[in-house]
Amino acid sequence: MVTILSSASMMAKYLLRHQRCNVSTYSVTDLFKWKDSSALIGKILTVNGWITSVRNQKEFTFLHLTDGLSPRLLQVVIPKTLDLPVGECFSFTAVVIKGQVVESPKKGQTFELMADSLQVLSKGTNDVAFPFTSKDNHPPDYVRKYLHLRSKTARFSNTLRLRSLLTSSIHDYFHKNNFVQIHTPVLTSNDCEGGGEIFSIKPDSQKLCQMMAKEGKSEEEAYFDKKVFLTVSGQLHLEAVCSGIEKVYNFNPAFRAENSRGRRHLSEFWMVEAEMAFVFEISELLSVMENLVRYCAEYILSHENGEIAVLEKTTKSVKEHLRAILDRPFERITYSDAVKILLENTSRFQTKPVDGDDFGKEHELFITSHLGNKPTFVTDWPRHLKPFYVRFDEEKQTASAIDLLVPDVGELCGGSLREFNYDNLRSRLEAIRILNQLEWYLELRKFGGTPTGGFGLGFERLMSYLFKINHIKDAIPFPRSPHNCQL
Fold first, then answer.
1. pTM to 2 decimals?
2. Terminal-to-terminal C-alpha distance of the chain
3. pLDDT band for position 450 (50/70/90)?
4. Under 8 Å CB-to-CB from 13, ≥6 apart: which residues?
5. What secondary structure does DSSP assign to 195-211, as a single string?
6. How distant, in Å, are the alpha carbons of 151, 216, 224 from that of 212?
7. For residues 65 and 45, what is the distance between their CA atoms, to the nearest angstrom?
8. Over the stretch 25-81, which tens digit does the pLDDT of each residue have?
9. Integer Cα distance of 104 and 290 in angstroms
10. Could you tell me if 113 and 47 are in contact, meaning their C-beta atoms sit under 8 angstroms apart?
11. CA atoms within a 13 Å half-sphere pointing along the CA-CB vector of 301
12. Beta-carbon neighbour count of residue 427 at 10 Å?
């Protein structure tokens, strides 16, 4: 008899019945976490999960079960002599199965579940109607059309687990190095980068705007009495907190209104930003940035649980790539030396490099390739290429700024020493006519201010670099970009 649970109350009754029967319920991953798997043999238990494949033989039906929490699959064996609803089982059917753990004769797995009860929670669908099949390796651009379903694919659920693991590595690094996490605001009245690539915020209700607007205020200023934007960076807010806490960081979403559809750009992305007080030399900043990236690679290698092996089914040499990050020191080069390299190879580029201009992506990738396919710090930038807050090195006559370039991605991090001199910063704010907006920022230099430095790292770009992900939209669960905001 086929039982399909279609309501929360029926589900609750089902779970309660199993609790009363004193049958332990496990996820697939729970079973594989047992240190001594032989202790499982003979146990009668219940397992929840989704079916990834169904294989019928003469005497048995074999199911593979996943919970999405790890790459591991549990083989379930169903004797044909039992009247169980195997005919309702397709790829991604949600089931609850009760049975006994037995030793497995199959090479590579120590146990399997011999089922005596199969509960179908939802029918799922057959392979023809569903956009994904367990047998096909669908290309990422096809899977991307179904954002609401792509976590069901082995490849993308694996990517999400790696994303979660990488998130843990970043928090672990900062906590071990005595940084304090700060939740900087998503709504801000500052344009940190000064590029104007920002999203404005106002209530959708025109009636509310008209009701709240004060005299002389536009609809965009009605709610907050000023124009407010989605943040492009939490840097300025971190600097404010850093005036009283020596080392701080955030891990927040950021937004940028660029008309770019390249494989390395998103309109909404995640940023890791750090600020440190009492930073006198740029080398201190470089060390933190390099150590962070290295720590992430090391953390992944020591904590992953089969995810790299899954990734290497479609992407070659990921583990070797991560080990190379640990084994080889990052390169360091000045802007002027990098420009010389580019000008000596100008015929290789679609856009010709110009001394004094910023680098395009093709230039960034060439620099890392030229220097041995290693992460490369570019320092000592022309002053006019960097924002108002960057400290100016009087001796070198350059901005004390850094870009970290990595192979196949380009810019991964940008950072700088912050301008500490009150008069210098004031004159810059006046020159670009934002002193009224950032009077508070200037005051940080008056009341116990210290030399500070910091950087921002694009999290999805780090994902792309470490795991060799070709398109940044496959490094984030729900990508947003121009003309694209599904769900």
1. 0.91
2. 37
3. very high
4. none
5. S----EE--S-HHHHHH
6. 43, 12, 9
7. 15
8. 999 999 998 888 888 999 999 999 999 999 999 999 999 999 999 999 999 999 999
9. 46
10. yes
11. 17
12. 12
